[in-house]
């Protein structure tokens, strides 16, 4: 299978801080929620909690008590070192393999702030993932992202029936009762009556919907299948062109 690579880097204006509870917890706790933003000012990264949103309070009710080291209610002026430490050192011999895992082309220049957005800067123990929202991005550019919510469709479309290289379609759902910005991911050229395998993540969905409405060409292909039988993961590679 041909692998695809991100070659056009979009430097983020901000990164969304999202949190997901224990996968063994309640359904509500397992839903990833936006709890804050990271903003880069020159060389300084600041963290701002979204304490006035419904989603933030839902996260708290599900067990969110802040990013480790940054108590809720504290004025955060500098979170630079804490978030940079979530990335592997560029001097590591396996750093090119790390980039390859996120389909970032070798030799592409990107800042640490952009690298956090393109990789998510996840650790294994705090449920925090960063999301690059691609605000004000002008095509062409590429995105490598995980399909959200596949577990709800895996009984109808088992992972064994999905192959890397399959094309997918992105469908806006303005009448979605949970999120009017929702963007559904369907297997293309499928004979299934319901070919849905999941959705674009909430942090990206509003811009995906805008790109589709603006007439951009938003094309996707299944790039990678991963995970464990109880929690299979699907990743898609997306190209956006004018």
Detailed description of the structure:
This protein is α+β, with helices and mostly antiparallel strands. The chain is 18% helix and 29% strand. The protein folds into two domains: 133 residues, no CATH class; 106 residues, 2-Layer Sandwich (Alpha-Beta Plaits), CATH 3.30.70.2330. Strand 7 and strand 8 form a beta hairpin. It is globular and about 55 Å long.
Given helix and strand content, the structural type is alpha+beta
Record the strand order, biggest sheet: 5-10-9-6-7-8
Rounded to an integer in angstroms, the radius of gyration calculated over CA atoms is 18 Å
Task: Give average pLDDT, whole number.
Answer: 92
Helix content: 10-25%
What is the count of structural domains? Answer: 2
Task: Return the string of H and E elements.
Answer: EHEEHHHHEEEEEHEE
Q: How many DSSP E strands?
A: 10
Unreliable segments of 5+ consecutive residues: 24-29
The first-to-last residue Cα distance is 26 Å
Which shape, going by the Cα principal axes? globular
Number of helices: 6
List key phrases describing it.
single chain, 242 residues, alpha+beta, Alpha-Beta Plaits, 2 domains, six-stranded antiparallel sheet, four-stranded antiparallel sheet, 6 helices, 18% helix, 29% strand, globular
Provide a compact summary of the structure.
The chain is of the alpha+beta class. Helices cover 18% and strands 29% of the residues.
Which helices and strands occur, and which strands form pairs?
Elements: E1 14-19, H1 27-30, E2 33-41, E3 44-49, H2 54-61, H3 80-84, H4 95-101, H5 112-119, E4 128-131, E5 141-146, E6 167-172, E7 183-187, E8 196-199, H6 202-213, E9 217-228, E10 231-241
Antiparallel strand pairs: 1-2, 1-4, 2-3, 5-10, 6-7, 6-9, 7-8, 9-10
């Amino acid at each position: 299978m041909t692998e695809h690579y991100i070659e056009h880097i979009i430097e983020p204006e901000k990164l969304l801080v999202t949190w997901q509870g224990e996968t063994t917890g309640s359904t509500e706790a397992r839903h990833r929620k936006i709890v804050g933003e990271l903003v880069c000012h020159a060389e300084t990264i600041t963290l701002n909690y979204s304490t006035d949103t419904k989603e933030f309070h839902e996260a708290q009710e599900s067990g969110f008590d802040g990013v480790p080291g940054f108590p809720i209610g504290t004025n955060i002026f500098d979170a630079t070192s804490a978030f940079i430490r979530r990335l592997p050192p560029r001097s590591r011999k396996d750093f090119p393999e790390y980039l390859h895992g996120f389909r970032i082309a070798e030799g592409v220049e990107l800042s640490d702030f952009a690298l956090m957005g393109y990789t998510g800067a996840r650790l294994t123990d705090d449920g925090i993932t960063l999301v690059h929202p691609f605000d004000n991005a002008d095509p062409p550019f590429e995105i490598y992202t995980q399909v959200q919510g596949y577990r709800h469709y895996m009984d109808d479309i088992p992972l064994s029936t999905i192959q890397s290289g399959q094309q997918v379609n992105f469908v806006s759902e303005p009448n979605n009762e949970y999120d009017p910005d929702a963007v559904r991911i369907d297997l293309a050229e499928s004979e299934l009556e319901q070919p849905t395998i999941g959705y674009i993540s909430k942090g990206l969905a509003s811009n995906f919907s805008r790109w589709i409405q603006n007439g951009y060409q938003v094309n996707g292909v299944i790039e990678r299948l991963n995970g464990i039988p109880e929690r299979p993961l699907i990743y898609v590679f997306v190209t956006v062109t004018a």
